[in-house]
Structures are given as C-alpha cells and as structure tokens.
UniProtKB/TrEMBL annotation:
<protein>
    <recommendedName>
        <fullName>6-phosphogluconolactonase</fullName>
        <ecNumber>3.1.1.31</ecNumber>
    </recommendedName>
</protein>
<dbReference type="Pfam" id="PF01182">
    <property type="entry name" value="Glucosamine_iso"/>
</dbReference>
<dbReference type="InterPro" id="IPR037171">
    <property type="entry name" value="NagB/RpiA_transferase-like"/>
</dbReference>
<dbReference type="InterPro" id="IPR006148">
    <property type="entry name" value="Glc/Gal-6P_isomerase"/>
</dbReference>
<feature type="domain" description="Glucosamine/galactosamine-6-phosphate isomerase">
    <location>
        <begin position="11"/>
        <end position="237"/>
    </location>
</feature>
<dbReference type="InterPro" id="IPR039104">
    <property type="entry name" value="6PGL"/>
</dbReference>
<dbReference type="GO" id="GO:0017057">
    <property type="term" value="F:6-phosphogluconolactonase activity"/>
</dbReference>
<dbReference type="InterPro" id="IPR005900">
    <property type="entry name" value="6-phosphogluconolactonase_DevB"/>
</dbReference>
<comment type="pathway">
    <text>Carbohydrate degradation; pentose phosphate pathway; D-ribulose 5-phosphate from D-glucose 6-phosphate (oxidative stage): step 2/3.</text>
</comment>
<comment type="similarity">
    <text>Belongs to the glucosamine/galactosamine-6-phosphate isomerase family. 6-phosphogluconolactonase subfamily.</text>
</comment>
<keyword id="KW-0378">Hydrolase</keyword>
<comment type="function">
    <text>Hydrolysis of 6-phosphogluconolactone to 6-phosphogluconate.</text>
</comment>
Length: 260
C-alpha cells in the first residue's frame, strides 16, 4: 500500500476541475496501457461536483467511455431513482452525458431491486458481480480498479465505513450491508477495506472547513477503526485532494509551502 500525498487547491471549484482532469488522464492512460479502464465512484458533495465538472470538460472526449467499467464505493439503500442515491446523482452529473456502455455501469442494487429490501442479499449480489469481473491477475475477488474515488465525512467515514462499526473489521467479503449508519439513510451498502485497497489509486476528496479535522486525523497515523479514512490506501498511490479549507489543519509534514 502506498503512503498518502496531499494536494491542495485554491477552492472547491479548482479542486473539482483539477480532479476531473486527473480522472480523464488516469482513464486514458489505463485504456492505452490495458485496453480498458475502471473507476469507483463516490457520492457526496465534492464527489458529485467532480463528476459534473468532468461532464463539462472538453477533455472528457479523450476518454473512450465504452471501454470503461464504472463501480460504486457505497450506496444509500433506497428505491431505484431516489434522488438521494449515489447512482442517481452520478447519472445526472455525468453518466447521462457520456456514451458509457450500460452493461459496464455497475450500480449497487436499490431497495426495490431483485433482493427486495434486504441489504445483505444486495451486498452479496454486488460482491458476485465484482468477483465475475476480476481476472486471474487481480489476485482477489475484485478487479484492480484504476482509481477509487472516496469522499470523507466530518466523522472521517469513507464509502459507508463509519467509525467503530462492524464493517471496518471485514477482511474477507468485498461488499457488506451497513445498518444503523449515523448519517442518513441508516441502511447502506459499502465496499470494504480489502476491496478499496485493491485499487491502483485511491483518491480521498475533501472540501470545506468541516472536513479539516477528519483530514488531519486521517493523515496523522490514527487507526482505521476510529478514523476510517486512515485505512483508505491504494496499491500504487494514495492522494488526498483538498481545497484550502479542508487542508487548514494538515499535519506539518503534508503542508508543503508550494501547496498553500
Ligand atoms: O453519504 C455519503 O457521504 C460521504 C461524504 O459526503 P459529503 O457530502 O460530506 O462530501 C460520501 O463519501 C459517501 O459516498 C456518501 O454515501
């Protein structure tokens, strides 16, 4: 796993634009090197803003959207089309505006889907889809995602891995149901740490002063049980992509003069 690097942008708009450009570059590079690319999307304010910027950016035309697998890091377990679903928001921000292959857009099941309102079955279904997509060279039950985007909550949750919850201890399953989440809605589906850590690159996105303490803790050597974002690491690279407000309390070793 790679140690994290922090990159600080002037404000949330610059953060969203720069991250959109980064995504396009990573996807183009992956398609050039391996024929296709894969990305894990996040929900949340800055995560969806990044997708909207990517939809607007001319560089989006450099990506071959049909050779892309789209996965989600977590989902709010709500009916299909609910405006609070991460899938619904990602579709309206980006996926409805590009020529993605519907067969390669792998949304997490909704609460009125084939498993009904049972998030455990829905989590198993998603884990099975990931396992089918994994190839022998992936060495595990999930594909080696090219990039996994994660938001971070003020409580330092990433995906739907909340502090002190049982999902944090999962070391076998790639996807779990989460019940009793402290942030609504209480029922969710989430990738686990082993699935997140299968990604080549993990990017934690944070905007706003309300995230500054969570970012500081995640970069201060805290344990992932108390500070889940501290456990989000990529195989090759881990980036914390921040605006100045979210970076306001960075540990000294991350606060490079050129970034502030
Ligand atoms: O509920 C969720 O929240 C987090 C962070 O959201 P934000 O609006 O505070 O940035 C997000 O990462 C996660 O995917 C989502 O389900």
């Amino acid at each position: 796993m790679s140690g994290p690097t922090a990159v600080v942008h002037r404000d949330s708009s610059a953060l969203a634009k720069a991250t959109a450009a980064r995504i396009a570059t990573v996807l183009v590079d992956a398609q050039s090197a391996r024929g296709s690319a894969s990305i894990v999307l996040t929900g949340g304010g800055i995560g969806v803003a990044v997708l909207a910027e990517l939809a607007r950016a001319p560089v989006r035309d450099a990506v071959d959207w049909r050779r892309l697998d789209v996965w989600w890091g977590d989902e709010r377990f709500l009916p299909d089309g609910d405006s609070e679903r991460n899938e619904t928001q990602a579709r309206s921000a980006l996926l409805d505006h590009v020529a993605a292959d519907p067969e390669r857009v792998h949304a997490m099941p909704p609460s009125d889907g084939p498993d009904g309102a049972d998030p455990e079955y829905a989590a198993e279904r998603y884990a099975a889809a990931l396992a089918r997509a994994a190839r022998p060279e992936d060495h595990g039950p999930v594909p080696t995602f090219d990039v996994c985007l994660l938001g971070i909550g003020p409580d330092s949750h990433v995906a739907s891995l909340f502090p002190e919850q049982p999902a944090l201890y999962e070391d076998e399953r790639s996807v779990v149901a989460v019940r009793g989440a402290p942030k609504p809605p209480p029922t969710r589906i989430s990738l686990t740490f082993p699935a997140i850590r299968a990604a080549r690159e993990v990017w934690v996105l944070a905007s706003g002063e309300g995230k500054a303490d969570a970012v500081r803790l995640a970069l201060s050597g805290a344990g992932p049980t108390q500070v889940p974002a501290a456990g989000a690491r990529g195989r090759s690279r881990t980036l914390f992509l921040l605006d100045r407000d979210a970076a306001a309390r960075l540990p000294e070793e991350f606060a490079a003069p050129g970034q502030m």
